Amino acid sequence: MNLKPLKGIHHVSAITANAKKNFHFYTKVLGLRLIKKTVNQDDTSVYHLFYADERGNPGTDLTFFEIPYAGRTYQGTNSISATSLRVKDNQALHYWKQRFEQLKVDHEAITNESGRMTISFRDPEGQRLILVSDEENHGVSGGKPWENSPVPQQHGVIGLGPVHLTVSRPERTIKVLTDIMGFHEKAGYQRDIDQKQVRVFETGEGGTGAEIHIVEDDQMSRERPGRGSVHHVAFRVEDADELNKWIEILNENHLPNSGFVERYYFKSLYFRESNGILFELATDGPGFEGDEDFEHLGQKLALPPYFEGQRTEIEARLEPLDTKG
Prior knowledge:
This protein is of the alpha+beta class and 325 residues long. The chain has one domain (9-317): 2,3-Dihydroxybiphenyl 1,2-Dioxygenase, domain 1 (Roll), CATH 3.10.180.10. The chain is built from 5 helices and 16 strands. It has an 8-stranded mixed β-sheet with strand order 2-3-4-1-13-16-15-14. It has an 8-stranded mixed β-sheet with strand order 6-7-8-5-9-12-11-10. The longest helix is centred in the N-terminal third of the chain and has 14 residues, at 90-103. The radius of gyration is 19 Å and the shape is globular. It starts with 8 loop residues before the first strand and ends in an 8-residue tail after the last helix.
């Protein structure tokens, strides 16, 4: 089978308990653009918010399911333990450190990890995030920050960076990444915060937009997710034909999976790796401008055509969320 390598990180989906506060932080503080206000297609009573670069280019989407009254996250192993966001260069990190101090965002010092400058921080719900500089990056290209962002374009977030997994049995996750998904291992590094060794795996063109970082921790209990936790990470495939090939690969390797799932803005396939972390494969297109033009992305409640007949009922269940400001 002529199968193309996965192209990198497609999106990361996390959990918030408060869509309004979430919208404020990710647009007004982090300067991302809300490019789609829609609903969780598996539970249309709650929002699904997509933040990204100027138009939601593949590899730039950080998304949130709103689960009102979600409890706190009890951090642990077998989890997506941090999500990275890429910025253009090292100078941008100094801008962000000053911005975090000014806006009282919980953050750490700028540090050098894996040959790149980074700064760790958290959103108000404890979401674990890392800004990573692309100054030394050679690999998957980033996106383009929105010109109307409150953050200057030269310092804006240009996409998703390495996704960090903490697992109790790393050999299980690594086997899926390398033997099935086509990742290969590159040089690792020692983490400053706790001196643990991190193993780095990349796919496609490699670089910050195509890496998974794995740390072993078999001492903690399994993470109990809630607000501020990550639901799943998705990887990029070219199109629906490629996605169908991946379904065959997973079936041949006896990996239970969702099969082909229509998400309207992209096509998807879901499965869990051997430590229980949810992976998704998602197509690069068709994208987010099929139901809204570029200038008005994210301003109205967007529903895929197969939910339009339920719009009245869906809107009645949702707390109004003003995203036009």
